[in-house]
């Protein structure tokens, strides 16, 4: 989910190697690039650890859900030292678009079960422009798809996961050099790190405790820093459970789906 550039993938590989050593759990690091279906990944019985967006977790039947381990806390100001994220609404830097004119823009969107790329921008629009009927371009699957659609003029604006944007600012600023942030959406629970429910509970607990204590050792801090993370926290599952209601309110205000 957050392998947004080769440099960032290398940092995640470093982190998961540290985690395997710290937890005493053998982890095989595998590539799973978009557009490979995330639902298939989340359903794997041998899933040791991966990210899962909170919205699909919330709407998934309880018996099918993986086990939540921890949620990241970003060093960025929008996180406010909490396990939350948001979406950056971005446009071409030379477009002159401002937040006040976003109801007349063409919006790129990722997939309908995405919080950051679909629900968050719709909630943003519903709060500021109730009943807005905007032109759209999608699905574009991923934050990279949104960036490309806006960069090439297929869309005027789009919502990019704020943490993905942070990682690009840190490690691949050239990928977003032509774009600028117009606005930021309301916070939502950060995508969680999860494991398969089929794993031995002892393995799951060792992974959880290693994540939650990562900021308490020099090696853990060194693994977190290149990822723009300060620590991991216990996921706010009550906030996660509230995401479908937030999406439904946006749907009601806008009157139609994209």
TrEMBL record:
Gene3D superfamilies (alphabetical): Periplasmic binding protein-like II (3.40.190.10)
PANTHER family in the record: PHOSPHONATES-BINDING PERIPLASMIC PROTEIN
Protein name, entry field: Phosphate ABC transporter substrate-binding protein
Organism: Martelella endophytica
């Amino acid at each position: 989910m957050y392998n947004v550039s080769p440099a960032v993938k290398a940092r995640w590989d470093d982190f998961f190697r540290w985690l395997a050593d710290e937890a005493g759990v053998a982890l095989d690091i595998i590539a799973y690039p978009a557009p490979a279906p995330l639902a298939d990944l989340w359903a794997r019985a041998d899933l040791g650890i991966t990210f899962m967006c909170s919205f699909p977790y919330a709407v998934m039947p309880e018996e099918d859900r993986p086990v939540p381990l921890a949620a990241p806390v970003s060093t960025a100001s929008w996180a406010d030292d909490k396990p939350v994220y948001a979406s950056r609404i971005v446009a071409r830097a030379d477009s002159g678009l401002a937040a006040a004119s976003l109801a007349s823009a063409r919006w790129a969107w990722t997939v309908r079960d995405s919080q950051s790329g679909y629900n968050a921008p719709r909630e943003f629009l519903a709060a500021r422009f109730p009943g807005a009927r905007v032109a759209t371009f999608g699905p574009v699957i991923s934050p990279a798809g949104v960036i490309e659609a806006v960069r090439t003029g297929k869309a005027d604006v789009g919502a990019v996961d704020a943490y993905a944007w942070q990682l690009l600012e840190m490690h691949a600023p050239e990928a977003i050099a032509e774009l600028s942030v117009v606005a930021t959406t309301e916070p939502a629970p950060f995508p969680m790190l999860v494991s398969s429910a089929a794993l031995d509970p002892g393995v799951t607990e060792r992974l959880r405790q290693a994540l939650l204590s990562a900021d308490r050792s020099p090696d853990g801090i060194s693994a977190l820093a290149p990822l723009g993370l300060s620590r991991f926290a216990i996921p706010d599952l009550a906030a996660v459970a509230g995401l479908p209601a937030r999406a439904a309110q946006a749907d009601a205000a806008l009157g139609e789906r994209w």
